[in-house]
Amino acid sequence: TRTLDGLTALLQGLDLDEIPTFPSADPLRQPVDIFHAYLAVALQALVGCDAQQAYDSITPANTVGNGDLDIVLPKLKLPGDPNLQDLAADITRNFPAHPLFVVPWKDKAHVRFCLQPKALPRILLPYILDRGPSYGILQDPDSPDPPSDQKTVLVEFSSPNLGQDFRTDHLRSTILGAFVSNTYEAMGWHVIRTNYLGDWGNHIGLLSLGWDRHGGSDEIFSKPPGEAFRAIHDIYSKMHDEMEPKIAAKRKKAKEKQEGASPVEEEEEEAIFAERAAAFKRLEEGDAKEVELWEKIRKISVEYYEGTYKKMGVVFDDYSGESLVCRDGKGVQGVEEKLKELGISEQDEHGLWVVNFANHGNVKLGTGTLRGKDGITGYLLRDIASVLHRHEKYGFDKLIFVVGEQNQHFQQVALVIKLMGLPEIEAKLQHLTFAKNPSVPIWGESGLLGDILERCEQYAQLAAADSGAFPPRLQVNEKLNTLGINTLAIQELNTRKGNKGISTSFDGEALMLTEGETGLGLQLGYARLCTAIDDIGSSSGSSSSSSSSSEIDFSSLWEGSWIEVLRLLARFPAVTNAAHKSLEPGPLLTYMFSVLDELGYCLDDVEEEDEAGGQESDGSKFAARSLLFRSTKQVLENGMRLLNVTPVS
Ligand code: ARG
Questions:
Q1: Same structural domain for residues 206 and 228?
Q2: Is there a domain that residue 136 lies in?
Q3: With 223 labelled, which of 68, 146, 421, 485 sits at a CA distance of 20 to 30 A?
């Protein structure tokens, strides 16, 4: 079924002519398009319209309850403005018997069609199994030669700050960013996964101060990355705890001053602010000692993160970070010169270089600082320079920032780039945002990604020991660990979907739920299917799986949940397309759980039959079911791969 000729041969068995062609039909990738094309021709013959018009009036049904294909009568645009209700009745009544469809029904201005159960398994099951990991996916990730017109997307996600906590928004960004990257890859894009480390800025100055005050030493760098990272993080945390009240007091004072409540005279600022800035300034100016320390800290932190992300199935192509455009000075300096030259930036009353967006037609964006006190580079300046740097390096067609909140910041970045006379680059930027949910602490608040993941592993172990829902095949520590981390990913993606049952992430209780739309639910359903496939394999012998689909009697799949699973499987490519377009994981998750629900009924049937002693080996039934199960397994795996979870069986 990999070629049109192959598909046509398959369809000839059903007394059909060659597949009708339409420009927007993609029968080799979307099985529903095969049905769509034949339906268009039948409709054309019936109402005498143009074939393309007929094709365009048909859409895939929005829910399974509405059938599989839907003629939307207003879209047919028939001359003479016929009464649509009457037209629906006419079409329904006169639609000739067709090998691919059951009798349609009318629904206001729609005529709805279900795919013919007798045809569906014969076409779809070989279709899915022939495509395997690339069913629902445009580009097989392992295929050797990418298309010549392949586009490049940079997906920037996770991006924690050196020394600082790995926050909830970093975690969400990691999980969402991995999903976004996968959907692009699935649609044939060249994807560069980028981690824009917060490896430059005032906090590095603070870390350097802490290094001297809280026992930093070279010994730390000879420890394994996990231990070294924890030691660095500890040092930073001590400084952070010292700073926090001072920052709060400073903010309070600034606010009071603004409101006129406090005397206006300048007060002495706490010394640590100046010390922090001075340390960072030394680094920016290339002071050998500061640079050496920074390099060592950065190196071991990246090592730690690489190993830890790997447990989540995330591998970055690039850890460029904020430092990249600052270290040689040229990146940021070039931008600054240009901004001055074009009159986009200006010096404010304190001598800082800023962009006052009110002067550029956007009052709402306020003022953005390019260089702060003492001439230190700012976050905004670094981001602008790194967009331009990356554009030069990768020539990307799209750059997606997966970052919680920071909406104003990314609007500022985009506007400055546009003002610089680069609207074509600005048009390629997209900020995928989400709420930070700061009220939810990460367990134990250690602030280390590795600790969060370990906690998930423990939860999975606990759930396995407690719930009795885990089959023996999953009772293996290594598998449970993967499962725990997968579960976190599913929970995070589900939270984005707005799942009511789980209002926050980092909820251990919720992570251990084995039923419903949860990570464990997904994995247990998948494992149950794997067990069923093994069972069928051992009771039906090896002959069935090798028989070609034209010899198989599919009649056991023509009804009940069996046909419902098939109808769902046919939709999978449309679901992955939609996931790519919206970059939302919700519909894909919903889809996966509906497949598992329907499949669950099929598996219940099988178990009941087994208990009733129905082993009198019905070869063709086994063969048909085995194909359905294997196809379903493939679809679940392809979906999981997009969601960035590892199927555990
Ligand atoms: N490191 C930043 C933080 O922790 C996130 C970086 C977001 N990406 C960017 N291009 N500014 O908040």
A1: yes
A2: no
A3: 485
DSSP 188-227: T-EEEEE---B-SSHHHHHHHHHHHHTT--GGGGGS-HHH
C-alpha to C-alpha distance for 183 and 172, rounded to whole angstroms: 17
For residue 103, what are its two tokens? Answer: 């009798």
> CA 431 to CA 411: how far, in whole Å?
9
- CA dist 499 to 25, 65, 376, 496, 590, Å? 34, 22, 43, 8, 10
Sequence-distant (≥ 6) Cβ neighbours of residue 137 within 8 angstroms = 186, 187, 576, 638
Supply the range of the domain harboring residue 247.
Answer: 153-432
132 Cα to the center of ligand 1, angstroms: 38
Ligand 1 — pocket residues by CB below 6 A? 156, 159-161, 196, 198, 383, 401, 403
Q: What percent of the chain is predicted at pLDDT more than 90?
A: 76
**Top-confidence residue, 311 or 373:** 311
Quote the ipTM score: 0.99
From CA 211, how far away is CA 260, in angstroms rounded?
A: 39
Domain count, the chain: 3
Q: Are residues 485 and 428 in the same domain?
A: no
A 10 A CB-CB count for 241 gives 9
Q: Same domain for 420 and 519? A: no
Contacts of 522 (CB under 8 A, 6+ apart): 486, 490, 592, 593, 596, 640, 645
Chain Cα centroid distance, residue 401: 13
- Beta-carbon contacts of 527 under 8 Å, excluding residues fewer than 6 positions away, are 471, 473, 474, 648, 649
Residues 492 and 367 in one domain: no
pTM as predicted: 0.94
- What pLDDT was estimated at residue 545? 44
Total residue count of the chain as it appears in this document? 649
Instruction: Say how far apart CA 521 and CA 531 lie, in whole Å.
Output: 15
Is 135 within the bounds of a domain? no
Residue with CA at minimum distance from ligand 1 atom 1: 198
Site to substitute for ligand 1 among 154, 156, 159, 399, most atoms within 8 A of C-beta: 159
Residue 355's nearest CA partner among 412, 420, 423, 418 is 412
Q: Which of 493, 489, 505 is nearest to 438 (CA)?
A: 505
Q: Are residues 410 and 515 in the same domain?
A: no
Res 338: pLDDT: 96
Residue 438 in any domain: the answer is: no
Tell me if 219 is assigned to some domain: yes
Question: For residue 168, what is the domain's CATH number?
Answer: 3.40.50.620
Distance CA 153, CA 515 (A): 37
DSSP string, 407-424: HHHHHHHHHHHHHTT-HH
Which pLDDT belongs to residue 29? 93
Question: What is the pLDDT confidence band of residue 132, given thresholds at 50, 70 and 90?
Answer: very high
pLDDT tens per residue, range 278-287: 999 999 999 9
Q: Whose CA is nearest to atom 10 of ligand 1?
A: 383
Question: Residue 544 — pLDDT band, cuts 50, 70, 90?
Answer: very low
Domain check: are 108 and 205 in the same one? no
How far away, in angstroms, is 198 Cα from ligand 1 center?
6
